[in-house]
## 1
Amino acid sequence: MTEKQELILVTALRLFAEKGFDTTPTSLIAKEAGVSEGLIFRHFTNKDGLMDAIVAMSEERLRTNAERILQLTNPIDQIHATLELPVKLFQEEREFWMLQFSLKWQKKYKNQSYTPSPAQLKVIQALTDAFRALGYAEPAQEVKVLMMLLDGFSHQLALSPSPESIETTLAFLKSKYPN
Amino acid sequence: MTEKQELILVTALRLFAEKGFDTTPTSLIAKEAGVSEGLIFRHFTNKDGLMDAIVAMSEERLRTNAERILQLTNPIDQIHATLELPVKLFQEEREFWMLQFSLKWQKKYKNQSYTPSPAQLKVIQALTDAFRALGYAEPAQEVKVLMMLLDGFSHQLALSPSPESIETTLAFLKSKYPN
DNA sequence: ATAAAAAGTGAGTAATCACTTACAAAACTA
DNA sequence: TAGTTTTGTAAGTGATTACTCACTTTTTAT
C-alpha cells in the first residue's frame, strides 16, 4: 500500500460519507487527494473496487472490536460493552461508521454486508451464552432485542447532529441489564 | 392529480426503492410508466421535485398512522400499537417504507426528514404520558428506548430478505412492556 | 363553436462521468 | 549501470443523463 494509495482511500471514504457513493465523481476524489484520476483506476480497477477496498477496511475494524468483547469473561460486562460500542465507534471515527451504516441501504452492498460476518456470529453466540448464564428465559430473543437497540442507538447517534445526553441514554440502557 | 401524474409517482417510487434515487434515470421512469420523459418535468419540475412529491406522500401516511395510535386510550395499547407499527407498515407497503428508511441516510433529505414532524412529536408526548401513567420512573428515557427498538426492528424487517419469526419477535418485544 | 389553458410528446443538447490510452518518472533488481 | 516492473500523469472518449423546446392533442371555459 503506497502513500498515495492510502490518500485515495481516506479521501474517498470522507467524500462517500459526506456526499454518497453515486454522487461523488472520481474526478473529485482525485482532485481532493491531489493525484491524477487515472491513478485511482490503476490501483483499484474501477469505482466499485475503491468501495470494496473501503468495505474491507471496515470488516477488519469490526473484527477488532468483536474480539475485544469476546475477551471479556463477565456476562454483564460483555452486554454492557456491546451497548457501549456505538458510542465508542462514533466518537472515534464518525464518518467512517456513518458510511458503513448508509451502505446497508445501498442496493449494491445490501446482500453481502448484511450476511453477518464470522466475527459478528461469534459475538452473537457469546452474548447468547451471556444471557443464558444470567438466567434469562429466552437468550436468543434477548440477543435479537439487544441488536435492535444497537441499531437504533447507532441510528440516533448518526442522524442527530447534536446528540444530547448520550451518556445518560447509555447509562439508562445499561440499567436495563442490571447485574 | 391526473392519471399519468399518479402513474409517474408510483413508478418512480418503485424504481427508487429498487435501484436507488441516483441510479434511476428519468428516462427509465418514463419508459416504465408509459409516458414521455418530458411529462415528468412538466409536472414535477425536476428529478428532486419528483422525490419531494413522494416524500410528501410519506408524511401524509405517517400522520394517518400516528393518529391511530393517539386515538387509543389504554397506555399499554398505545405502546403495543407502536411496536406493531413496523410490522404493519412493511406488510402493507414494503417498498414504500424501505425507500423512506434509506432516505434518512441520503444527505439531501437528511436534515428535513429527521426533524420530527408534528405528528411524531404528538406520539412521543402521548407515549411519555403512557409510561408515566404506568408508573415507569423515567418516561422520557423509556420513549427513547422504545424509539430505538422501533428503528432497529424496522431495520431488521427491511434488510433481512426472509424475516423469520417476525411474530415471535413482536410478541417478545411486547412482553417487555407487560400490563 | 371557439378560444385559451393544460396535458402530453419526442427529438434534441450540453454537461458530466467512469474509464482508457499513450507516455514518463521512479523504484527495484541483477 | 542497464533492464524491468511499478507508479504516476494528462488528455482524451463514448456513453449516459437531466433537462429543454417546439410542437400537437386534449380538456375546460365562455
## 2
Amino acid sequence: MGRSPCCAKEGLNKGAWTSQEDDILIEYLRINGEGKWRNLPQNAGLKRCGKSCRLRWLNYLRPDIKRGNIGPDEEDLIIRLHKLLGNRWSLIAGRLPGRTDNEIKNYWNTNLGKKVQNHQISTTVSIPPKLSGHSDENNFPPPAVSTTPMLSGYTDENNFNPVPTINLMPSIDTSTLPSSPISKTCTNSNVIRTKAFRCSSKLLLTPQPNKSCKENLETNVIGVGLMPMDGQHHSVNKPTELSGAFDELLSLVTTTPTPTGSSGDHNNNQSSDLLMNFNVGHICLSDLLNSDFSGVCDFNYSDDNMSNDLSPVSADQPPLTQYSFSSLLNSGAEWFEE
DNA sequence: AAGGCTTCCAACCGCGTAATA
DNA sequence: CTATTACGCGGTTGGAAGCCT
C-alpha cells in the first residue's frame, strides 16, 4: 500500500510565497497556534500544501527567526557541531538560537563545506554532503593532511582560543574494512551517520577486549548503529562506571600524542583509537554525553594541529567560556535519548 | 549591452518514524 | 498488533541574482 500524498496537489500554489500568503499564515498561526499542518491550508484559506506552510513558518515567519549575518562564532560552532554530528542540521540549528536547519544547511553547502574542504580542517574530514555518496573507493579516504584550521574570524589577532575538537566517531582505515554498503555508509564520512542512531533505544558501546579497534568499531558503531537496539536497557551505575570513563577520556584528550610515521597513519590511529581506548564498557553514550565534562574543558588550542595537539591550558590563559566542551558534547546528547 | 555561467537559497520531495485509530 | 496518518528531517531542485566575458 502506498503512502498517501500529504495533500492534494491540484490547484495548489507552488514556488515563492507572496506577502499576502505570509500574512494569512501568520495571522492563522497567531490565533490557532502551530500544529495540524495538514488541515491548516484549508482552514486558513491558503492554496498551499500543509508541508509548505509548516516550512514557511518554521524557516521564515516565526518571530524568533534570525536571518543572515552568520557571525564567525556561529560559523565556528557550526563547523564543530557538524564535525561531531554530521548532517544533522536540525540538531545543529538547535544549538544556534534563531537559526533554522535549512539556513544552516544552505550556509554549509555554500560556504562552510567549501571552506572546511579547502582548509582540510582536520585529518579526518567530514565529507561535504555532495560528496557523501562518493563512490571512488580508490580515492577514499582523502589525504590525511594535518593543517592549521584558519577559520574565518578566528585569527591570532582577536585572541580566540577555540575549544579542541574531539572526534567521537573515529576515522578508520577503510581499505581494511569489509566493502559492504553499511560499512561504506558509516565510514565514508567521518561523522556519525545519524539515521542509524536515531533508534528508540539507547546506543551502547560495548568494546570487546579481545577485539581490535577496527572490529570493535564495526561491532559497536557500525553494527549496533545500524540496527535497532533490542530494547534492553543496560542501565549503568553512573557515578562509578562513568567516572572511570571520564578518567580515560580525560587522559586521552590531555595526552599530547607523539606522532610516529606519516601523519596519516598517526591521525588515523589516534582517532580510531579514541572510541576504543575510551573504555566505556556498558555505558550508554547518552549518559556520557549528558554528563558534566567541565573538568575536561581546560585545554588550550594549538593552531598547528587542531585535532591532535591538545595541550593543557596554561595558568595565564583565560578559561574557555564561549562554547565549552561539555556544551558541545551535550549538543549531541538529545538524539541519543529515547 | 547582452548572453552565458555560477552562486545562492527558498522551496519542494521523499523517506523514516512517532502517533493514532 | 496492524494499518494509517501526520510530522519532521535531510537531500535536491530550480529560479533569481550576481558575475564574467
